[in-house]
From TrEMBL:
Keywords: Amino-acid biosynthesis, Decarboxylase, Lyase, Lysine biosynthesis, Pyridoxal phosphate. The gene is lysA. GO terms for biological process: lysine biosynthetic process via diaminopimelate. It comes from the Bacteria. Residues 36-281 form the Orn/DAP/Arg decarboxylase 2 N-terminal domain. GO terms for molecular function: diaminopimelate decarboxylase activity; pyridoxal phosphate binding. Pfam families: Orn_Arg_deC_N, Orn_DAP_Arg_deC. Pyridoxal 5'-phosphate binds at residues 239, 275-278, 373. This is Diaminopimelate decarboxylase. PROSITE patterns: ODR_DC_2_1, ODR_DC_2_2.
Length: 419
């Protein structure tokens, strides 16, 4: 469920009609619902209760400071993968002891920043990273809490580009090598083993791959404890999928996911951490755009929008489907359009042959399910200003990232004196 519904034929974000936001901020613009973000966060906390747990929002899905603060104020932790994300989480007021640090390429500088600012744990992804972290922590006279990210060699049955838990993927260490590496970790200065981490991919629509991975983690927990390690925490990653097309079969709900977690690892006495991104933010946001032109091509009509692939890359990058709906209900969807942006690439196509009511220049459309991996993946390709963001709560809204002016964009470049 989300909070983007039609009232009197006009699509609203909570109680705010989207045309009001378009008039105030211009398009394209991302619009998020505070109520949906909060609701999705609570779905996970409820699903994992009564197990001790921490829901760490994957900042990569939506790193806007206001979104992080909203979730952080509700008690969420954060999963970060870079110094930039770490600093964002801290700037949003999230304490270090609720931040986990993932990623295959953490630099020593990033490790130092997190150790200085406070960190719940590093999810270590390789032996060289473990050695680097040991060096950094020991030199600082401190101890780094560590889980090792294991790669369980499970096929998440998701898009090729976002599967992370097969042996050919770059993530984690092979689970068969885990006991050796934990033995190494235990002997290293500046390292305190606290648990195990796993994340097998994103947009999973079936619980079976999670279950297979978590069963392996449960076995490993027992084996590591028998080896004398303290395994108090299990970070089970993110990855639960969302319905992108209203007509598609519905992916499992957080409640079903929670029941599966209790079934597979619930009896180990561990604190459970999860790192959902998409399920919390995805359906909490839409990308609002305007029709610039309706162009009649040969055998097809192009709906040319003011949003482009640089604002929402998912269709071009993964062939992803986003529902595209008219903001003002316009009758039966009896026209078929190729929905495209103004960028000079044929890949700048959001959808082909999409049935919509008859549209004309100036009409507003909304891309649904755009709150995760939307604004964060935006670029300024074609010198297009980075797309702004708005947060709605009840009957009011605020711009939470302004559209930069062209002067601001120009001012970031510098001309060398010798030119
Ligand atoms: C380590 C890690 N944690 C969490 C996530 C969040 O995944 P999702 O947005 O699918 O919940 C990702 C992205 O796949 C990830 O790589
Ligand atoms: N960016 C991807 C998800 C990547 C998940 C990050 N590990 C998407 O839009 O679906």
């Amino acid at each position: 469920m989300d909070h983007f519904l039609y009232r009197d034929g006009i699509l609203h974000a909570e109680a705010v009609p989207l045309p009001e936001i378009a008039a105030a901020v211009g398009t394209p613009v991302y619009v998020y619902s505070a109520a949906t973000l909060a609701r999705h966060y609570h779905l996970f906390t409820e699903a994992l209760s009564p197990l001790p747990h921490l829901v760490c929002f994957a900042v990569k899905a939506n790193g806007n400071l206001a979104v992080l603060k909203l979730l952080g104020d509700l008690g969420a932790g954060m999963d970060v993968v870079s110094e930039g994300e770490y600093r964002r989480a801290r700037a949003a007021g999230v304490p270090g002891d609720r931040i986990v640090f993932s990623g295959v390429g953490k630099t020593k500088r990033e490790m130092r920043t997190a150790l200085e600012g406070g960190i719940r744990q590093f999810n270590v992804e390789s032996e060289p990273e473990l050695l680097a972290l040991s060096e950094v922590a020991a030199a600082m006279g401190t101890t780094a809490p560590v889980t090792l990210r294991v790669n369980p060699d499970v096929d998440a049955k998701t898009h090729e580009k976002i599967a992370t838990g097969r042996k050919e993927d770059k993530f984690g260490v092979p689970i068969a090598r885990a006991r050796d590496i934990y033995a190494q970790a235990a002997a290293l200065p500046g390292i305190a083993v606290v648990g195990i981490d796993v994340h097998i991919g994103s947009q999973l629509t079936d619980l079976a791959p999670f279950e297979a991975a978590y069963a392996k983690v449960a076995d490993l927990t027992r084996a590591l404890r028998a080896d004398g390690h303290r395994i108090d925490r299990l970070d089970l990653g993110g990855g639960l999928g969302i319905p992108y097309a209203r007509s598609n079969e519905v992916p499992p709900l957080p409640l079903d996911y929670g029941a599966m977690v209790r079934r597979t690892v619930g009896d180990l006495g561990c604190e459970i951490e999860i790192e959902p991104g998409r399920l919390i933010a995805g359906n909490a946001g839409v990308l609002l755009a305007s029709v610039v032109y309706l162009k009649h091509g040969e055998g097809r009509d192009f709906l040319i929008l003011d949003a482009a692939m640089n604002d929402l890359i998912r269709p071009a990058m993964y062939g992803a489907w986003h529902d595209i709906v008219p903001v003002v209900e316009g009758g039966a969807p009896d026209h078929v359009y190729d929905v495209v942006g103004p960028v000079c690439e044929s890949g700048d196509t959001f959808a082909r042959g999409r049935p919509l009511p008859p549209m004309t220049a100036g009409d507003l459309v909304a891309f649904r399910s755009a709150g995760a991996y939307g604004a964060v993946m935006a670029s300024e390709y074609n010198a297009r200003p980075l797309v702004p963001e708005v947060l709605v709560s009840g009957d009011h809204f605020a711009v939470i990232r302004a559209r930069p002016s062209f002067d601001e964009m120009l001012a970031r470049d510098t001309l060398p004196a010798w030119l």
